[in-house]
Amino acid sequence: MNLKKVLSGFLMIVMISSVLLGCKKDGSESVSKGDLSGSEITISVWNEQNADDELNMYLQAEKATGIKVNVNVIPESDYSSKLNQMVATKDKSSDIFVVWENDIKNFADTKGIVALDKYLKESTINQDEFIDAVANLTEGLGATYGLPWCAATEILYYNQDMFDEVGIPYPNNDWAYSDFLEAAEKLTRYNDDGTTEVYGFDLPNTQTWWAGIGGAGDQVYDAESGQLVIGEGAKSFIDDCAQMVSKGIMPEPSSDTSDKFASGKAAISWLGSWNIGTYSDKLDFNWDIATIPTDKIKYNTLHTGFYTINANSKNQDAAWKVIEWLMGEKGQEINSKSSGNPSALKSIADKGAWKVETATTIDNWEAVTDSLAAGVFGYTCLPSGVTNNAISLFNTALSGQINSQEAVEEAMKYAAETIGY
Amino acid sequence: MNKKARTAAIQKNVIISLIKIIVAVIMFSPIIWIISGGFKTLTEFTTSTNIIPKKPTLDAYLYIFNSSNFFLYFRNTVLLMLGTGVGTLISSSMVAYPLARMEFPGKNMFFALIIGTMMVPGIALIIPQYIMFGKIGWLDTLLPMIIPACFAYPYNVFLFRQFFRSIPKELDEAAIMDGCSHVGIFFRVLAPLSKPTYATIAVLSSVYWWNELTQPVFYLNSEKWRTLTISLMTSFMFIKGNTFVVNWPTIMAASTLMIIPPMLLYFFGSGYLVEGIKTSGLKG
Amino acid sequence: MEIKRRRNKTLVNNLTAYGFMLPWFIGFAFFTVFPVVFMFSVSLTNRKLNGISQYIGFTNYKNIFSSSTFRNSFRVTMFFTIIMMIVTALWALFMAFLLNRRQKLNGIFQFCYFLPSVIPSVALAYAFRTIFGKDAGLFNALLSLISGSNVQINWLFDKNTVYLAVFFITLFTYNTGQMMLIFRSGLNDVPKELYEAGNIDGASAWLKFTKITLPMISPIMLFNTVMGSISALNGSFALLYPLTGETGDPNKMTQVLSLLIYNEAFSNHKVGYGCALSVILFLIACVFGIGIFAVSKKLVYYEN
Prior knowledge:
The complex is a heterotrimer of chains A (about 425), B (about 280) and C (about 300).
Chain A: H1 2-21, E1 40-45, H2 57-65, E2 68-73, H3 76-88, E3 96-99, H4 104-109, H5 117-121, H6 132-138, E4 147-148, E5 154-159, H7 160-166, H8 177-187, E6 189-190, E7 196-202, H9 206-215, E8 220-222, E9 227-229, H10 232-247, E10 266-272, H11 275-279, E11 287-290, E12 300-301, E13 306-309, H12 316-327, H13 329-339, H14 346-350, H15 366-373, E14 375-376, H16 384-398, H17 404-419
Parallel strand pairs in A: 1-2, 1-3, 7-10, 12-14
Antiparallel strand pairs in A: 3-13, 4-13, 5-10, 5-11, 6-7, 8-9
Helix pairs in contact in A: 2-12, 9-10, 10-17, 16-17
Chain B: H1 3-37, H2 42-47, H3 59-67, H4 70-101, H5 107-118, H6 126-135, H7 143-149, H8 154-165, H9 170-177, H10 182-193, H11 195-211, H12 214-219, H13 228-233, H14 248-280
Helix pairs in contact in B: 1-14, 3-14, 4-7, 4-8, 4-11, 5-8, 9-10, 11-14
Chain C: H1 2-42, H2 59-66, H3 68-100, H4 106-114, H5 121-131, H6 138-147, H7 162-170, H8 174-188, H9 192-200, H10 205-244, H11 257-267, H12 271-299
Helix pairs in contact in C: 1-12, 3-8, 3-10, 5-10, 8-10, 10-12, 11-12
């Protein structure tokens, strides 16, 4: 008898804990069509929202639609794999996924996200308005599964004060690669003992590696085979960078990563266009932007993400309402203003809301449009494990532990093994 | 007569004290670094190595308390600690009881198996468990960590067994004379006598789950059940609106907040913590 | 009658015992045996993260053994586990010695020595990423101060220094603190008479250490360091994942098996392959476990 007591007590605890922990998840009530205000949705994204409420598009969407919008932030480094896990396990905790280029086909194929055509039919969003690259990418899915939330790309940021000091003309959108190399060398300032005080150039992010490699003539991503395609271009760009590192012109990757451009420790930096919004008026020097210098060709990776609806969501209609607002004029305007990323809808982009007002030192706004025009979908279509591994190898080559040839071969081999699995 | 020897002894003492102080500085330096980092601005953090910040700022803490879900993460971590702690205390002590105090067929084999599973690192089984929990829809909740705890951790079973064995057997016999069943002995005699043991294992388990990173990394996806350790790698890692610039001061400030509970535990429960760890070392 | 009653009694006794052990039976079946079997069966498929899978026989294993990434990871795991075991045990013994000399303020010293081991490994990893930073790292600043020149060592990205830095960081993990406390009580248990006898014989401190202390505490030391190696297999993920990332920078020099498993299963979506790697890690752990049994049979006595 006592044993029974123990066991039942034990089961009670198990049950209580499962009630406490598990069942809250299913608390989202289903809402009848028509009356969506008061319902609640969750959107999964990778970046934190703007601290300014006026520029927080999800907060504004909530106000405009009356639907409570929770934001679930998963950092970039894990984003793709966590999203894949959520889709694979039919997770209901998110209603809207902002899906990356490399995942949308996969999610559509496994029916993890819903086709939006039935909603689009009754909507004012005009799909012909999307920039061509987006249209190309989503072709062949059989239906429209996602709407691009913006069109971002990589650009060059430079510290005007430092250029003035050294007396070099500012870069323009047709800056030659050789001029860039020369300028970077001249802009570098050394301490007495030979260490670097101010770097001429910094390549802080993974994405700008691919801009350099593509610009040096490599294809990067082959849509037919889905493979990573790099070779001579990657080799020459890695060699250039390794040389700059050995001369102290460019910092090598280190564990205490920091933004050297923002802290005035680097004169030139290649970064995503979304940094315009981050820097806005927060830098204490004059700065401007330009297109990334042209080596063999003008090459930029186009970045976007697609608003999609989780097929297992119980609030699909509410989710659509929020997406519709976010893709509408107001939503796109706020997105552009806060991030500096133009809309993927041509007519909205043309209005220029992405020219962040607080970034007063920027004159060369054409750099963004010019870069976007050269933008293609590249490394973002590859699995994140493949690109992470490649970047890790390139970084190793920078410090001279392996040469560029080995780095490129290893990266290709790894990609072939992984993608062919 | 012993003057020489005494000065030599004093010298030796001074040298050892010096070494002790140096080791203490080395061992404590990361904690000082973390605490000081929380009061720096990002620029100061990435450009200088001052221990005392030039321009101390509370920005990181204000951000944590005002604009992040710190309290949600804290609640999740506490729930995780409570769930696993209660589960493992009840189940592990129950399982340990017959192993320590009863004779039954297969006892040695079961004990060997328990010791054996103790040696299997959890990380080796985490992928199949991940798929399994995914199938029953437990991913992205705390259940994959709490439910297994309710079915006895080998390690804690082993500890309980060692403790139970140290309690004199005569007590059982006396209780049986009084007509107690084994269930009665467990609840009326052993469990009350082992309160310090329960407290010790509760402390060890809490420290473990407060610091645990691996399982949450695998099992948790979204913000809803994010624990503090994960939040250091996610929510507190990057500056607002940009996922590429690491916000070191916020990480350090959040780390400081995470160091406080173990520190308090050491101050107020060091008996349980230190003694518990000593016994956990399988002195045999 | 009498026999029957006795038999009944044993039956009740046995059933009670099994009843008490029921949680473990369930836990063992569902959270150990089943995952092991399931892991092996998934390792024979090309299961992807999205759940689609196909039986492919031993292809995963074939690919693993021909993969240079795996061979590297295997070497790194062995190297990391064994060196970490030695380094942390020696450091723990050293600290235990210092603390066991009765002096003032020992309480404060133990606090300083022990606290780092109970703080989250993520916090520790991030602290050390910056302490070992190149431009604004504490370590380089100290070295600059001592040497008088501007030292800029890229500790965690340079192939010559990365292991130095990583093993230094392992001195702050739970393993070390735990061993320190255990060794302290182990040292206390060494009979004082032995030292007194040594003093009478005029033995030097070193001689006393090698001839008295070491033999007396070696069973505890050996057993706990080997136990520590299991937790090193397990715990390296929590330290290295935030410290050097899942790619094990630089050039996969710190990519232990647990990181490789995470990387293959989640970043590359190769769950079947990840399971095959898990099987191998499981087997490695078994080998270590059997080693521990062999050692413990010889050296440690369970009071029984």
